[in-house]
Amino acid sequence: MKILVTGSTGFIGSHLCRALVDAGEQVRAFHRSRSSLQGLADLAVEHAIGDVTRPDTLEPAMQDIEIVFHCAAMLGLPNDPGQMYNVSVQGTRNVMRVARQSGVRRVVHTSSVAALGVPLETQQAASPIPMDERHTWNFRPDRWRYGYAKYLAELEVQYAVAQGLDVVIVNPVVVIGAGDLNRISGDIIIHLAQGHLPVVVPGGLNAIHIEDVVRGHLAALELGKTGERYILGAENLTLMQFLQIIAQVAGVTAPKISLPARLVRGLARPASTAGKWLNLPVSSELLHKAGYFFYYDTRKAQQELDFCARYSVRRAVAEAYAWYLGQGMI
Length: 330
Known about the structure:
Layout: E1 2-6, H1 11-22, E2 26-31, E3 46-49, H2 55-61, E4 67-70, H3 81-101, E5 106-110, H4 145-162, E6 167-172, E7 174-176, H5 187-193, E8 199-200, E9 204-209, H6 210-223, E10 229-232, E11 235-238, H7 239-250, E12 257-258, H8 261-266, H9 268-274, H10 284-288, H11 299-305, H12 313-326
Parallel strand pairs: 1-2, 1-4, 2-3, 4-5, 5-6, 6-10, 7-9, 8-12
Antiparallel strand pairs: 9-11
């Protein structure tokens, strides 16, 4: 098949390109002219230079393309949420429209569990209830601009589906592994290894190995149902459990001091101001989510995509840590 991957130089996009090439597919890697090509090094792909915010560059890139993996997104710049909206929302709108006009057979849209919002307040107890694909956005947009942008992008996808485009959505959790050049999810590994995280707060997350995320994308291509979303997750862990895994891999001491979640949330606004001048190890948006257990139910992907994570979070952390060491980031 002829396959276009947007966001091809990013963490997920570059690993996906490699898996597709290894499978014998013809891959066209769509990226900006200034993007680092480290993740695509020595990979037999056709390069298409452009930007998802510019439809005139998408149109030639989608000529003769059967499948599109739309991985392009932006975590956001602290002082420029508009640019994040342009890339994640307007960019998705452009990709879907051009894909429909170009006769693309199927699109796999890389969203995020962030688009589901936060757990209900009643689910922050000792036994939190995992969220599933039915959960919808329920948080203040200004306190999680990335999550809100991903939610809005999914609305663009659903509009395209209503117009007749075959699109499947995947929602990865925290993705860990080697090759995270932009330190999207691995920042916490670097900070803890360098001793920059002396405290922890109550809460939890779900993490997954990058290779499992790629397998989930391929499974969604083959088995996903049009217009459906699928959570790609592996292990639900408390934040303390996750930090202990990192500490054991890095050979450092895990944080022993636990701060009350309410206190940490109260620090979010001052941190937002201080972050303009200080290199804080966490963002103000992350502080707003202190105390939440971001646990996820992955049964839908198991049942409909025959998808189940193969690799442990410990292995993902170990490979990420070794890669960061090799890159001189630690």
